[in-house]
Amino acid sequence: MFFSIEFSALHRLAWAVLAVLIAQLPVVADDSFPVTIRIDASKNLGQLKPIWRFFGADEPNYTTMKDGQKLLSDLGSLRPNEVFFRTHNLLTSGDGTPALKWGSTDVYSEDKNGNPIYNWKIVDGIFDSLLQRGVRPYAQIGFMPQLLSTHPEPYRHNWRPGMPYEDVFTGWTYPPKDYDKWSELVYQWVKHCVDRYGQEEVETWYWQTWNEANIGGTNRPGYFTGSEDEFHRLHDYAIAGVRRALPTARVGGPDSAGSGGNWSRNFFEHCLHGTNYATGEIGSPLDFVSFHAKGSPEYVDDHVRMGIANQLRTIDEGFRIVASFPELKSTPIVIGESDPEGCAACQGPRFSYRNGTMYSSYTAASFARKHDLAERHDLNLAGALSWSFTFEDQPYFAGFRQLASNGIALPVLNVIRMFGRMGIDRIAAESDHTVSLDDILRSGVRQSADVGALASVDQSEKRITVMVWHYHDDDLVGPSAVIDLAFTNLPNDISTAELTHHRVDDQHSNAYATWIKMGSPVAPSNRQYRQLQQSSELAILTDSADSIAVDHGSAKIKFTLPRQGVSLATLQWK
Q: What start and end residues bound the annotated signal peptide (predicted)?
């Protein structure tokens, strides 16, 4: 009897211990699938350029407000003085009061005799806010001041989400009535920047004319209500003003909507071989070229279906256009807006993916393919600019395309933080469940999920970093991937390496999920806000770094990655 009782107690204890161990294991759905990823540390594919370090927004005045300044600090800290910010409305007339898809700086007015009066106070505040936080301007030259516009009324729009997008295009979209005054305004602005910040600083900036001037036309509303020739003239006079103030300034463009097609071809032809409207010389300098690329999400069957194929096809076409000009073969390219869709300030069902992990997993999968496309075309991709910032004094998680809401980082920002941790050289990474580049270009990720990897090495820091994503176009629950991540050709003289595993998913690095669990409070309390801040940080799966064995240059780790999850595995050795 005594033996029986003792055995029963031990039996219960064993089952209790087993239950605890099982509870600590990752939950793997019955329909999960295995994925094998191989990292070859010896196969160097060249520099992994930090293309992620470009950002932008329609609304420049948010950069000087509390949440905008906090987000700028977060971005600048990722790569101090190498992060760039592009914004509309730096020359738009107005008192600096921000609104959706609007901003102003009041840089230009005139006295009663029509002589220019320049006022740099607001635009200085914007650039100061950037530079003080380790972010540099990607200075967009636009839009048209009211007193220079050929159609000054109506000037300021009153657009709100739900209104026709065409209502945005008012008097600021028109060519100048006096091109010499336009060029002089740009000259005075750049000269002032050199005086204020120093030549060496301003030489690092990007200067570019207007935004998406191929949307619109003569008597047709758009970002530029004028002809192609009028845009060439606008550009030539603007760039002449820049170079007159700073001959070594970095200038380019045209930041077209999409690849721009023949419109961009005509622009490049004009800049390379045409007669400059401002100087009478042949050509206009192009230190970099730029175009935009957007995806096309839809709302189908009660869920969002992303359009990654549309964005990557646009990039492919843009690269093809640039490559068709031999003079531009090595010219740096910036995809000046590179996003899942086209309107950051718009709201609605097809934009409902933005707060969560669909946006973050899309970002990981799409940015990796931008590198692949640049390699395919043998072009110099310098940046892919996320047109997503923050919207000040809006409701929590309001559904805008942004990196943070009310000072709380969204999951997408944590994927960008992951990119910021990657090394300087790309190494080979092969996954048996990645969707090929050609298949994504053809039809997106509509069948099997895309489970891929981007790997880097930093030899000076003895560190390998691997980003692994689990992406599908459909914002639906799906099976998890059980990842077998194997490293080969590590240094033969090491026997162990430290593993740090960062994660973005529905449970990690996800303040939006935390907010939902709170009951979606309209006004979180101080305690709740601190909890949201904590959950918005880039999370580590384990409490501290784990040591893993390295045997004759090989190592292996295994983990479960849920759909829409992104992992960053870092191996470091001594």
A: none
